């Protein structure tokens, strides 16, 4: 084999067949295709299951985290009035491999409007910061991007695209006036209130 | 495509780089015997990719490791397969490393000028074993936990090894720091070190080329030379494909890697290392006490030193195998020793009944805990998964409602009868012999009516007959009475004693549906239904009537909870004896 041949390889597609003991081009092509095919097959062993595995949390019917799908008791009717009160919501939570009993899964503002209690998620519908209540001007205010909401949850200032998300609230008159809330999360940044999960 | 390559090549010189990587002359021609290094490189890269994939679900903490591994193994789509490939991939690396080493020794490729290449190779071999050792612990299951305890324990027994052991495991005991350290070693330190060594190894390999057959002359080698691309690479990749196919087959065959029950520091697990460490495990059996250092350090150290020194040990004038008899014999001896010790370990375990039984129990625990883990593992950690077991719920119910007055296994109050072994033959004998001891009714306020029966009044054989009669009465209360649970002849004798000689019938009714006189009717006494009845309201006429002291749980506990408790109490005694008798029959 000549040294010229070696030097020329970067440019030439393949070294001259004659230089390698008269090997025919067909055999060399077979080997090249073989390398490609077997290599792809080997990669496929891992890549194919890896895709399924990595995207598994998105698969239909898969629930990686859950909790608070039922109503969670947040207090007595007498604890709430026209001034908003923030309540934490506790529920059993499944998070991938863990199941934790009675952990905080979120919080809500509870306020009396025309004699009825309503609950708003503290998650800002804009980009998910926790909304505060400002007693001076009786408004809910988001500390991040200056969205402000009235006591009815309607957006009044700032970039928030929709009202605060109202949560289902149940007033158990027979059970001694216990108030419970069904905690849910909603898509952020959209005009419509769309439940996640 | 070509245009794009041109564009890229102008800016990066990629064609020259590829040429550099692929255009190598293989003197003497491409050969199957050169595949091992390439196969190892493939396996290493695959392990890296698989490891990264596993890391997307795995959580390295003493509380999460097992739960997240069980999650990968039993819930995530394809998780068992990728974990299985990673597990068997480590075995494959050990096997191919050995084959590579043998080939290098046979070819005399460790000789000048390739000594440094030989040493980097040996160092990588050591790293492969370190990978195996650190990876074994990460699932934090019984097998990994106990086997690794042994390994770090060995380190601690070596002179001056204790600080090393504590540094490695992050303190004097296993815990979170052990797992974070092993994790950091396994996924950062070892792969980076191996990659660096692999770079040096490949560079040196390219510098010196393959070690062709020694019998060919220079001219023959040149004449037969073939290019690495595609000739050798084709053979290499075919070998990789064979290896990959074996791995896939093995992974399907075994449904991936084993995962035992979560690490339980209180258990007595039958610890065994992974198969490729069995020879060391076996070696350890032959050296006791202070001599064990021979098996743990001196012999392995001597073998390692011998291998490292091989380029100097070998003074033969030629690479040809027949000229290097002593060296080849030395390496061969080590290999034979390893194989024999491994075989001995396997044979001994196969014949070790205790180990086999332990293994069966371990598999049962594994199956059970992994099933329980599907409901979610409590954040307290792997072994807390047992809290998902209904038995745990029963124990919690008992603790909350019953243990103020009743004891089980010595834990609980003494105001009411102990329920350990409740109602089995021994318990019943005791109830007749010493009804007023605190283990029975001694702690209760009202139950002073029943007199103790001394041996003079009721000899043991008569007592046994009466007890058998009581068990017959209990069994009659079962929905499906099983006459094999008692000795009918003995029970008949007991019945005669009961009716004619003893004074039991003065206070205890035995008829179904009868009312007691502040004492329990013995028909059906002790069945699950009867125990549930006592829990509901022990003041019922067929139970303790006016003498009842136990609070009523009817309405306080749900029917399901009452049934759970009744079953739990039943199983403390009769149920347990039953189960053991059943097991006895089975063996």
UniProtKB/TrEMBL annotation, chain A:
Q: What CDD domains does the entry give?
A: Rieske
Entry cofactors? [2Fe-2S] cluster
Q: Which Pfam families match?
A: Rieske (PF00355)
Q: Which UniProt keywords apply?
A: 2Fe-2S, Disulfide bond, Iron, Iron-sulfur, Metal-binding
Q: Name one GO molecular function term.
A: metal ion binding
Q: Which SUPFAM superfamilies match?
A: ISP domain (SSF50022)
| Domain spans labelled Rieske | 110-178
Q: Which GO terms describe its cellular component?
A: membrane
InterPro entries listed in its UniProt record: Rieske_2Fe-2S, Rieske_2Fe-2S_sf, Rieske_Fe-S_prot, Rieske_Fe-S_prot_C, TAT_signal
- For the region Disordered, what residue ranges are annotated? 1-26
Highest taxon, organism lineage: Bacteria
What PANTHER family does the annotation carry? CYTOCHROME B-C1 COMPLEX SUBUNIT RIESKE, MITOCHONDRIAL
- What name does this protein carry? Menaquinol-cytochrome c reductase, iron-sulfur subunit
Q: Which organism is this entry from?
A: Plesiocystis pacifica SIR-1
Automatic annotation (TrEMBL), chain B:
Location in or out of the cell? Membrane
- Looking at the keywords, is Transcription present? no
Q: Per the UniProt entry, what are the Gene Ontology biological process annotations, in alphabetical order? A: respiratory electron transport chain
Q: What is this protein called?
A: Cytochrome b/b6-like protein
What SUPFAM superfamilies does the entry give?
a domain/subunit of cytochrome bc1 complex (Ubiquinol-cytochrome c reductase), Cytochrome c, Transmembrane di-heme cytochromes
A GO cellular component annotated for this chain's UniProt record is:
membrane
* Record lineage: Bacteria, Pseudomonadati, Myxococcota, Polyangia, Nannocystales
- List the Gene Ontology MF annotations in alphabetical order: electron transfer activity; heme binding; iron ion binding; oxidoreductase activity
